[in-house]
Structures are given as C-alpha cells and as structure tokens.
Amino acid sequence: MDKRHFLQISAILVGTAFFSRYINWSSKTMASQTEFAVTKPENEWKSILTPEQFQVLRKHGTERAHTSPLDKNYAPGTYVCAGCGQALFTSETKFDSGTGWPSFFKPIEGAIATTTDRSFFMTRIEVHCSNCGGHLGHVFNDGPQPTGLRYCMNGVSLQFTPA
What we know:
Blueprint: H1 3-19, H2 42-48, H3 51-57, E1 77-81, E2 87-90, E3 94-95, E4 103-104, E5 112-117, E6 124-129, E7 135-140, E8 150-153, E9 158-162
Antiparallel strand pairs: 1-2, 1-9, 3-4, 4-8, 5-6, 6-7, 7-8
C-alpha cells in the first residue's frame, strides 16, 4: 500500500466516524428505541401494514411527495395513525403547505411525541404516534399561526375518518 492510498483510506475512515451520528442507521434517538402502549413483533406489523406503511411507520421511511391522496383532502374528519388507530389530527388544523405531504399546525393533545432525528446529515424533530411509536413525519417552525408549526406527515402513516 502506498502512502497516498493509506491517506485516502484514513480520511474516509475518520470522516465516516465523525459523521456516523448523522446517518440514519446510527441514530440512537429514533422512536423505535422506546416502549409504547401498543407493541407488536416485526412480523405482526408486516402482516397488518402495507409494505409502504411498514417502511414509513416502522423503519422511519418517507413516502414520495405528492403521492398521498390525503395531501389534498380537506373534508371534515379526523386523521388517525395507520398503525394503531389513535386519533392524531383534526381536519380543522390541516392546511396546504405546498410541500406535497399532508400538513397540520396542531396535533390532538397527547397524540404525538417527538424525538431528535439526526439522519441524513441534518437535525430534525421526528414526530411519532405516542401510542405505538409509528413514525409519522417531522415538525418544522415554518407553519401558520396560531402555532407557527408545520407537522409534515407521511400520508401512508395516516388514515382519514370522515366526520
């Protein structure tokens, strides 16, 4: 091994070690590491969720923008967790954020919990169901009043119950 090759490999290893906390597989603060009222083994979650729901709710995935029919749904009703059925948001708090994901400015009290998500070289606030820990999306400080928050949710993690 020549000196140049050794230095390149060393730089890669040091860089990987330094940035590893920002890569999704090393984030220790994700909701899946906490106990919740509703818990199921992975194979049971797979049997009750679609593959896309499983990827988002249980593996902290993200659906593609503009793919959820719930993004443009403004009928009166309640948005519930697709994993456990807990009520999360009401239609009165939904707004068009232009992001391509269903967005809300306020959850139902006690319905969600948050953790720090350090994946993909950034720090964000992950939103998950307080009942089953299912990953719902993220919350940002650029929403409308009265809260100024934008709960940007994956549509596959939600189900809509009309009023």
